[in-house]
What we know:
This is PPC domain-containing protein. By secondary structure, the chain is mainly β. The protein has 1 helix and 7 strands, in the order E-H-E-E-E-E-E-E.
Amino acid sequence: SSALSVCVLRLGPGEEIFTSLKKFVEDKKLKAPFIITCVGSITKATLRLANAIASNTNEGNQKIVHLNGRFEIVSLVGTLNKEPHLHICLSDKDGKTVGGHVISDLEVFTTAEIVIGECNGLQFTREMDERTGFPELVISSHSEKA
């Protein structure tokens, strides 16, 4: 078998990307999935901006933004497992961009065409890292019998 498998997911108007990706990964029993590329548009997003550190892990101290409007998905990247870690960059009607860590509410406007890769033979999990205060990616070997 090859070291990489590829799946494609297309979501339509009103569907939510974050939860749809979690369900897709569970249904397909993917062990080490990641986003290869995504194009589409959304009408809503909840993002955490880049000031979160271990000392402000409670949501009240983080910069959370709730976006409403029509945005093009310029980029969506990340690793997927039971706790997906996704970053997104969006552009508004004037081409201005905003980006951050996806919290939730990525509601599709017209479409989201998502290409998902999987590293065969590996498994992605998350464990709390005392250095960062966040659950961080752990990569391990995985056999079909596991």
